[in-house]
Amino acid sequence: MSKFYIKTFGCKLNQFDSEKIREGLTLSGYFETDNVLEADIIIVNSCGVTNKAEKEAFYTLRNLIRKNPDAKKYFIGCFVEPKDYEKTKFLKGKDKFNIPEIKNLPFFPLSQQKHARPLIYIQNGCDLKCAYCIVPKFRGKSVSVETEKILEQIEFFVNHEKKEVVLTGIHLGLWGHDFSPKKTILNLLEEIEKRFGGKIKIRISSLDSNEIDNDLIDFFANSKTIQPHFHIPLQSGSDKILKLMRRRYTIRQFAETVEKIKEKVNDCCIGADIIVGFPKESEDDFNESYNFVKTIPLDYLHVFPFSPRIGTDAYSMEGQVDEKIKKERVKKLRQLSDSKREKFIRNFLNKERVGIAIYPDLILTDNYIQVRVEQEVNPSSEYKVKIKKILSPTLVRGEVI
């Protein structure tokens, strides 16, 4: 009986890809094991968005080789350059599924049904050229999944009594741009609403601010399916740095988008990504960014230090920022994020929200508040909860109503 072991790093799409590989190997007669010593095949699905993430994946591979030198190894996914490791095959980017042992690769893995909030794969790749981002070199140009295939995935989970799914991809806002005639993410969401309105909730993983127009905001405000939680990458609150990054918006445009969503979508939560220490980010630039984020109605931040990646324009830019300064700036913005998150949560103390159980003792509300409950709940089921006490900037105590 042949067995495989798989370790996954990185984004939701990487997790989805690993599910496909896992199911493909199972359909081909292999059995998964949690014990690497038993494995005939070892797979590391890597993330190369940052140097740190890629190094961690290679470190894991070396450890697995030491533990089980005789197994066949596949290092797959997002990485810059392969290493010379014995009995290891490197499959980069779109070639990650070319594992000879897989005879039948599913379009979407049925094993997603075990998750409380399954992922719906709608798009891969990116056509843009942000100065810091290596992902387009790993994933290639944007490729959209056909509307009907997306609806089929959602229908499957509706039939399996799931209450929420998460639309995922590398750049969701590019969905449909490769079709002829061209379509938009709004076209897709309208089709989902038409087919499933009220039957299941949809959470959107991320959209850029310049991809969110008034029509899309109006749709969010009136939708029966879209959860009131939006993640909108900012990356910097300085127009100078945004231009160097080759982002496609200004801080004024970003602020207007966030404010319109807050105005029209009741009780919504809005988060953003921020990169600190980008080349030529001076102290004044950082302070401008900090003050901008402080004044606009964002509710949480995902803060990352700039990581220079070989193959990106930012790698060789002048004005690289000292690592110690990056750490100080990351710390300051993360403290601001905690403050904003707690302020947002306080608006809902002693109030009721609807949410999805993601663990037997944890419910995620529609507007992205994690609620710890004493009563045992069934993952994937929908509950009404009353928020009672703030335990941390990311967790509250509540009770099922």
TrEMBL record:
Q: What PROSITE patterns would the database entry show?
A: MTTASE_N, MTTASE_RADICAL, RADICAL_SAM
The EC category is transferase
- Matching SMART domains: Elp3 (SM00729)
Identify the EC number(s): 2.8.4.5
An annotated Gene Ontology molecular function: tRNA (N(6)-L-threonylcarbamoyladenosine(37)-C(2))-methylthiotransferase activity
Q: Which UniProt keywords apply?
A: 4Fe-4S, Iron, Iron-sulfur, Metal-binding, S-adenosyl-L-methionine, Transferase
Alphabetized Gene3D superfamilies for the sequence: Methylthiotransferase, N-terminal domain (3.40.50.12160), tm_1862 like domain (3.80.30.20)
Q: Which cofactor does it need?
A: [4Fe-4S] cluster
MTTase N-terminal domain location is 2-108
Report domain Radical SAM core positions.
112-343
Q: Which NCBIfam families match?
A: MiaB/RimO family radical SAM methylthiotransferase (TIGR00089)
Q: What is this protein called?
A: Threonylcarbamoyladenosine tRNA methylthiotransferase MtaB
Q: What gene name is listed for this protein?
A: mtaB
